[in-house]
Design goal:
21 strands, 4-stranded antiparallel sheet, single chain, 3 helices, alpha+beta, elongated, 3 domains, OB fold (Dihydrolipoamide Acetyltransferase, E2P), conserved putative lor/sdh protein from methanococcus maripaludis s2 fold
Amino acid sequence: MKKWIIIGAALVLVPGLFGSGYLLLSRTGGADPAAEELLQQSAADADGGPVEVELGTVSSLLVLDATVRPEPGESLKARQGGTVTHLWLDDGATVENGAPVLNVSVPAEGAAGAAEGDADAGPATTEVTLYAPASGTIRGMDDVRVGDVLEPGAAVATVAPDEFRAVATVPANDLYRLYEDPSDIMLKIDKGPPSAECEFLSLGSAEEGSAPAPEPEEFDPFADGSEGGGPGAELSCRVPSDLQVFDGVRGKLSVSTGEAKDVVVVPVTAVRGTAEEGEVTVIGDDGTEEAREVSLGLSDGQLVEVTEGLSVGETVMDPVPLDPRFDVPGDADEEMDDMYGVDG
């Protein structure tokens, strides 16, 4: 019985050796012309070649992870402090702008300086009404009770409209793509209703953790692969009132950062630099190469608009030759080895 097991194992091993030999010959270029051609084509792509400058259209989109939040609202503050004497409304009530919310008792003017026992002295306290600073729903007043003492400037409650906003963090390096406040934003809720327009509200500084981090398994074809070194900026837009959402649901914002039609364009790989200014290598009719500075406009991640420095019909090198001050040729070689499984 052991003899047959050994013979069977040998029969399995022999084809495996033949297969390994075929793979070895393929890697050394002796038996697989298709693989050899693929490697040659990849090497040609890495070396690049001349491309002609053309007219084209650049439509730039930025896709961001977003979170829905309720509108922050406005604070109702007891500027003078005081003691709560009456509650007109409770937490969760709907209120109109300017409606009374609660009364507080505060020291009357001149009461502290009045002589003790002075019959002509006015009342020691006076009652002040606090009014809603906006229309909406009262939040944060569930712990307020008659008799509570409020410090001067204390926020008693928040009055917020029954509206939501979608908030997303723009990576620092992608801020170069926001040339002006975006006017075209679409919101898509994960596992929710169809996408809808989202009106731009603001673009300001963001704090770490204020919006969800991008999911690493998803590929954004418009991204330049750089997330920047800081939290970036926070972009927010108004969720349409007829779109059913809830606090904390997640989705995506598709932000149009601009469109340029019939403009001079080149591949982004043909330019060193991606925002405002860059450098290209122009190939002359006689084959000479000239490093030329250019001004840049919109980019969609594949093409970039050249506003100054190039004319239609000229020829540039794509990709732009390596900059010895920053680019390390060995990095590209290692990437190709990893791609095709070649050991160093």
